[in-house]
Design brief:
- The chain is of the alpha+beta class.
- It is built from eight helices and 21 strands.
- Helix 3 packs across helix 5, helix 4 packs parallel to helix 6 and helix 5 packs across helix 7.
- The longest helix has 21 residues.
- The relative contact order is 0.10.
Length: 399
């Protein structure tokens, strides 16, 4: 819209009024975003969200000779760097909400954005994506983006910058947290609330990668239909907490709505530990006084701990883990996973849980193109009803 006004309107006053109107609209989008800059919808939407915002801001900057510019604002930089920080490697990204697990972003767009906000991280990441070599230049139907990509192409190709992934990324308002170590683990966790953009009921879930390969996964979302954006959304299995890496408590799954959320969400960078109380993410009928989930990344293992206190529970708890590849639960107390040659073992207390594996067939190409014909849900079912307790799951690389 801004581009059209700048090209077509020749009278100064109507042009100023039109430009101002576009600024008000973009302000609404910027003001919706948390100060930490995370994209609630996930990396798949970044190019249509922060990426489009950047194109607008660049055009506005150029049209006003730099008189109107937000590129020094920390929020704008944070929104840009989200795309680099959400990249795991080898084409895999952290895909909370409706995002696909595959992606990475447009290298040229990311480079231009990084230059504008003076982000070495974005420029290095863009150089990594491009491979410092020529590639197809396209902005789709966006002429401005295409021309800008052409303008910066030579600079990107010969930048020679080296991408060094951050050890951790913490988004305190959106409540996303990513941690990685030298042993090859990348742990992504979230708190949040169950009415986010493109929401899944998944407060407290996590995804785990080994040497960039997803092990414990977020399935993502299938092909959009009328049902996806209707009152029937949460009848779709991909939207339900039962098919994320969170517990079923006293027979209750998480509920939809802004009031259903994680609480007391914290990240301790010295311990590489994310914690959140999931009690409020479940309906009151679940009778949860507290359910504190801790996700900690150590040098050679990941520890998931659930410490809880319930009020008059009537059913045993169930803790679910989504995965793919090959799954072996033949040994009590162990879940062995292998994906593309990467092997992981999760240990649990066999005196507390029995394991059940459900095969989830994928007949939707938007899912099967990523994961293949099927994924699995490993459910650890508690044998007894407990008012208080602590569950510990230890995940390490298997031989």
């Amino acid at each position: 819209m801004l581009q059209c006004f700048l090209l077509l309107e020749e009278e100064q006053d109507p042009l100023a009024a039109a430009v101002y109107r576009t600024m008000l609209s973009v302000d609404k989008f910027i003001n919706y975003t948390h100060p930490d800059g995370a994209c609630e919808e996930g990396p798949s939407y970044w190019g249509h969200a922060a990426g489009k915002m950047y194109d607008y801001l660049q055009l506005l900057h150029d049209a006003t000779g730099g008189s109107v510019s937000l590129f020094d604002e920390p929020l704008i930089r944070n929104m840009g760097e989200y795309i680099a920080r959400s990249y795991v490697g080898n084409g895999w990204v952290v895909n909370f909400a409706d995002a696909s697990a595959r992606g990475g972003g447009d290298a040229r767009l990311i480079y231009r954005y990084g230059k504008a906000v003076d982000s070495p991280l974005m420029q290095q990441y863009a150089a990594y994506l491009s491979g410092n070599g020529p590639g197809e230049i396209s902005g789709g139907r966006d002429l401005f983006r295409t021309l800008q990509n052409l303008l910066y192409e030579k600079e990107l190709v010969y930048t020679g910058q080296v991408y060094i992934p951050p050890t951790y990324s913490w988004y305190p308002e959106t409540e996303f947290c990513y941690m990685s170590n030298r042993e090859g683990f990348f742990l992504a966790t979230k708190g949040g609330y169950n009415n986010e953009s493109h929401n899944h009921n998944d407060a407290g879930t996590f995804s785990l990668y080994l040497h960039t390969t997803p092990i414990f996964i977020d399935a993502g979302v299938g092909t959009y239909t009328r049902q996806t954006f209707s009152h029937e959304r949460y009848s779709i299995w991909t939207m339900q907490s039962d098919y994320h890496n969170v517990p079923l408590v006293n027979g209750f799954a998480q509920a939809f709505g802004p009031e259903y959320k994680a609480g007391n969400v914290r990240f301790n960078s010295s311990r590489m530990e994310f914690t959140a109380d999931l009690a409020a993410a479940y309906p009151a009928e679940a009778g949860i006084k507290s359910w504190t989930r801790s996700c900690r990344l150590l040098r050679k293992e990941v520890r998931i701990e659930d410490t809880f206190e319930l009020i008059n529970p009537s059913l045993p708890n169930q803790v679910n883990f989504m995965c793919w590849g090959s799954v072996d639960v033949s040994v009590p107390g162990e879940v062995r996973l292998e994906v593309n040659g990467e092997k992981v073992k999760m240990k649990y207390d066999p005196a507390v849980f029995t394991s059940v594996v459900e095969t989830v067939k994928l007949d939707d190409p938007r899912l099967s193109d990523v994961w293949g014909e099927k994924i699995y849900r490993v459910s650890l079912n508690a044998g007894q009803v407990q008012t208080t307790g602590k569950y510990v799951f230890i995940i390490n690389q298997d031989k």
